[in-house]
Specification:
Distance between the termini of chain A: 76 Å
Number of helices of chain A: 15
CATH class of the largest domain in chain A: Alpha Beta
CATH topology of the largest domain in chain A: Rossmann fold
Order of helices and strands of chain A: EHHHHEEEHEHEHEHEEHEHHEHEEHEHH
Strand content of chain A: 15-25%
Helix content of chain A: 40-55%
Number of strands of chain A: 14
Shape of chain A: globular
Strand order of the largest sheet of chain A: 1-11-10-9-12-13
Oligomer: homodimer
Structural class of chain A: alpha/beta
Largest sheet of chain A: 6 strands, parallel
Radius of gyration of chain A: 25 Å
CATH superfamily of the largest domain in chain A: Nitrogenase molybdenum iron protein domain
Largest interface: A-B, 129 and 129 residues
Chain lengths: ~425, ~425
């Protein structure tokens, strides 16, 4: 891992440069994706079939995954995986139900009613990657908040497969997906955004995908809503001398195994711990089945930052604004106040990140590459809209009229003023 | 106005085609904006000064608007405008305070704590357009929610002027802006996103602007948060035979005067009302100072849709998903349940849209071009992040261990399983 030392300001500069790199556009992908979007918009199902043959090497007659295939998945799934998915679902539901908002209404003066409604979006689309990146846990994390929000119809799409991983179809069914279509990539995103003869267009698209999927989501944003542009996954660990280097190393590696671009960042005020973690990482890496991914990730993107105080540790980590943040400290709960930017926080020596990835119930779809500075974990709030409303009686309009028309004339918007004046007695 | 009749399905298709047109990209602008962003990222203040001379024809020594200029604005402002701004501020504050969320925490089983913190974003940037599009009311609407959310520093930028409209500076001061810099366009957005020697980079950028500003916001999205990509302003009016055609016409025109691209859409089940509104529009247009804007807007983008039932009126209008929605009906409040998509709803014959634009307290920064299907008015929620947290005791990890490792192995993520197993006794 690269070790960063120096003043907080020096390290800040380095962190910001890295963040700029991560947010760069890729213009070649842009052009390819733009063409796919146009094609699907124009040619619908026909385009989808062509892309399926070209990219997935599968000729499809029908995109919808049948109930028979789903029933079969329930028969094929390992019963222990089924049990674990069901238990995870219970926890995800009980956590997310706490996010349900209610509207409000007040009557600030006579004849005036103001309020805010909370309405679910009507139709949501969830993208689920294919192959080894198909995670049943992500299906639960994307679908359950939408279901709790009250979304009427949830459409899932996933690249065509000769044989679907049973846990994916089972998770979709447990979570309450209404329809599953086998179509992936930028063309899948296009189908959800524009609709085709068989795939209905949705109001919002969520779920992770490769660079083509991410670029397509960014391009259709505006016509439909999207969750976020997910970058490489990352973990930040703040550890002091009370931390166990074995645990810290294992947690950093659990992130590194995701992707060669994944980032594992340790901030510590203990040089001794930093060294012990480096030794442990090497020790554990050797025995890791996904060493081929985790090693380049750790070597290229791993960072150990030595800070000289508790406050400096938190200042720097708040600048990293990590997707996952572990506080490997005694009495970690007491330090929550110092956390300004993070998607999800794991407190104390035993709360390893995978607990949150799979089980505790908080969402694992989290803001990456420093976007936790301004955005949040996926949740029920992402599947609702707030609709404002107001009602003024005739007397209330007359009472407010002078102020309103004064502002309208000051802004040069005379028709705005006239719309009030036409209602005068 | 163009009159649309036919089945709900036919009209739906036309509305969707119009929506597609509105969401099209403009690739020429893209290239120009990309160059400006790169220039400001690399050259900072020097680039900003060059663009100010080039685009604004003003040579600046210092970007910051001094306290002297702000004090002077308070002396210059029309006292009635000042009074109206103060009254509007009171209403905006009392409405938005109702949006403040609190976090939650539960202990679902022994040794497990889960929760969600609400944290304000740290630094927000507000873009305020220059010239005739500089609206003091928009300053209040963008800044007050950020202030209520608890944002620590609010930076406002606005294009350089020989003499600033006093109401703009006064509104900024009343609302609690911390610093004002005179820099506009794509270069202004770049300054907020990347920071320069004098302008600090922010975590989120809000506020309306022209196509260059909007494109720049879209491009820096990811590195910073943005509010939304605002399209042309629009009003939808659902009116039945109880509506007053004078009022309906005045309200449609109040939207049309904003911009030749603004959209005014009437849906009614009364052919008689439709005709009366058309006559009134012509009558009022003639006397409108901004007729040169409002007339092409009404002629090109005005729509009258004749629906054959109350439900059909709401179905079609929910598909339009207008930024502003007026229900010009008796007992309008009782129809709120039928509204699925709208930014802000104005109930009854007297609640003219300008009441909401200026005064009632609900926000006037609203989702345009059908995006109210999945997004909402600007509010306090746009200036906070939700941070999840969890803590498992050693015993709680052991109890959950089997389920977690089962799922990790099923997904082929062995390091995730190891991070749990390393904590076993």
């Amino acid at each position: 891992m690269k070790v960063l030392t120096g003043t907080t300001e020096d390290i800040s500069k380095i962190l910001y440069q890295e963040q700029l790199e991560l947010s760069k556009e890729n213009l070649d992908v842009d052009d390819a994706v733009r063409q796919i979007l146009e094609d699907v918009k124009k040619n619908g199902d026909k385009a989808l079939k062509a892309y399926s043959e070209k990219f997935d090497k599968i000729a499809l007659d029908d995109f919808e995954v049948s109930q028979d295939l789903i029933d079969q998945a329930f028969e094929e799934i390992d019963p222990e995986v089924l049990e674990a998915l069901k238990n995870a679902k219970v926890n995800i539901e009980s956590y997310h139900k706490q996010q349900l908002e209610s509207g409000f209404e007040d009557q600030p003066t006579d004849g005036v009613i103001r309020g805010q409604l909370i309405r679910p979006i009507e139709r949501a689309g969830v993208y689920v990657p294919g192959g080894t990146a198909a995670y049943p846990s992500s299906v639960l994390m994307n679908v359950i908040p939408a279901k709790i929000a009250g979304v009427k119809e949830i459409i899932m799409i996933t690249p065509p497969q000769k044989h679907f991983e049973p846990a994916i179809l089972v998770a979709a069914s447990l979570a309450g997906v209404d329809k599953i279509f086998q179509v992936g990539g930028a063309q899948g995103v296009a189908a959800l955004a524009y609709g085709t003869e068989t795939i209905p267009r949705v109001d919002k698209i969520t779920g992770p995908g490769n660079i083509f999927v991410a670029t397509a989501k960014k391009m259709v944003y505006g016509l439909v809503g999207i969750d976020m542009i997910a970058g490489p996954s990352e973990i930040g660990v703040i550890a002091d001398s009370s931390a166990n280097p074995k645990y810290v190393a294992a947690d950093l590696l659990s992130q590194a195994e995701h992707d060669v671009r994944a980032r594992a960042i340790l901030v510590t005020d203990s040089a001794e711990l930093a060294e012990a973690v480096e030794v442990e990482i090497e020790e554990q890496l050797k025995r890791l089945p996904r060493e081929n991914i985790a090693r380049p990730s750790i070597e290229n993107n791993g960072r150990i930052i030595i800070a000289d105080s508790v406050d400096a540790m938190f200042d720097l980590m708040n600048q990293v604004a990590p997707e996952h943040l572990e506080l490997a400290m005694d009495n970690a709960y007491d330090y929550l106040d110092k956390v300004q930017n993070a998607g999800s926080v794991f407190l104390g020596h035993f709360t390893s990140e995978p607990i949150g990835d799979y089980y505790a119930g908080a969402n694992h779809v989290l803001p990456t590459t420093s976007t936790s500075r301004f955005s949040s974990a996926l949740g029920v709030h992402d599947f609702v809209k707030r609709i404002q409303y107001m009602q003024y009686s005739k007397a209330a309009v007359n009472a407010a009229s002078h102020d309103i028309t004064t502002l309208a004339y000051a802004e040069g918007l005379q028709a705005h003023a006239k719309a009030i004046e036409v209602r005068h007695d």
